[in-house]
Amino acid sequence: MITRNFFLFLAKNDFIKNKATKWGPKFGAKSVIAGESLQEAMDTVRKLNEKGLSATVDHLGEFVYDKEEAMAAAEYCIRTLEAIEEAGVDCNLSLKLTQLGLDVDKELCLNNMRSILAKAKQYGNFVRIDMEDYSHLEPTLDILMELRKEYDNVGTAIQGYLYRAGQDVDTLKGTNIRLIKGAYNEPPEVAYQDAKEVYDNYLSIIKRHMLNGSYAAVATHDHNIIAEVKKFAEENGIGKDQFEFQMLYGFRSEMQEEIAREGYKMRVYTPFGNDWYGFFMRRLAERPQNITFAFRGLLSK
After folding, report:
1. Do residues 272 and 36 lie in contact, with contact meaning Cβ atoms separated by under 8 Å?
2. Is the distance from CB of 7 to CB of 288 less than 8 angstroms?
3. What is the pLDDT of residues 117-160, one digit of tens each?
4. Phi, psi (degrees; rounded to nearest 5) at 210
5. Is 4 annotated as a binding residue?
6. What is the CATH topology of the domain spanning 34-275?
7. Taking Cα atoms as reference points, which of 105, 164, 98, 162 lies closest to residue 129?
8. Measuring CA to CA, which of 10, 94, 209, 280 is 20 to 30 A from 19?
9. How deeply is 14 buried, as exposed, middle or buried, from its count of CB atoms within 10 A (0-12, 13-18, 19+)?
10. Does 113 carry a binding-site annotation?
11. Model pTM?
């Protein structure tokens, strides 16, 4: 049986990653990646907008250990914001701090974020800091809190499988948070391992954040959670302008459009670029049944 841990192992295997990158976005990755270029990403976002869907784009990449590479990644984020403005599309920007030099120098990463947020504010746009593995949680929240002293157009994500998720949600009251289950292989010392416990804690932090009066981006493909959130919002007088649903590009597209038709904001997380491997493996880890995408991608070549 192909397991979640198997795909998480592949996500960290540099040898396989290098081989896969040379092959290009095959094995189903092309179904969930909005192209490799910025222009392809904007074309994809425009098509999503035409269906009533909002978007957030992410130029794939992470774990940069070189200052020049981190500076180049920050410049690309700024170019992406400029492309969004020029295209006139309904789209935010998502990014990872390790791509911007978090593992090189914290101050470098912070300054890169300031440059990106200044450009986003100029355009009236919003930037989401993706949450990474547990070792980067505290540095990410530290940088977020520092940035929020200067900018209100920045938020992050909180992972529901972590024991501390509820506490972090309370600390970030008033912040636009993407609420996710979590996609990294964290140990039992810091994260729930049982699927039922993860589900319950995830639903709990969603309700907690919504009751705090904070904007909630509920990122899930689970129709049960979506139904529960709709019901909870209605019962507690929480308007549709206080939350949105988010799903990944290429997953449950019909449900995405149905949610949008019901009058809810539906935002599609839309990754693009060449460094697709780790992202794709973590998506398979979340839903190993998506291995069928791999065979379709292979057979189409």
Report:
1. yes
2. yes
3. 999 999 999 999 999 999 999 999 999 999 999 999 999 999 99
4. -65, -40
5. no
6. TIM Barrel (3.20.20)
7. 98
8. 94
9. exposed
10. no
11. 0.86
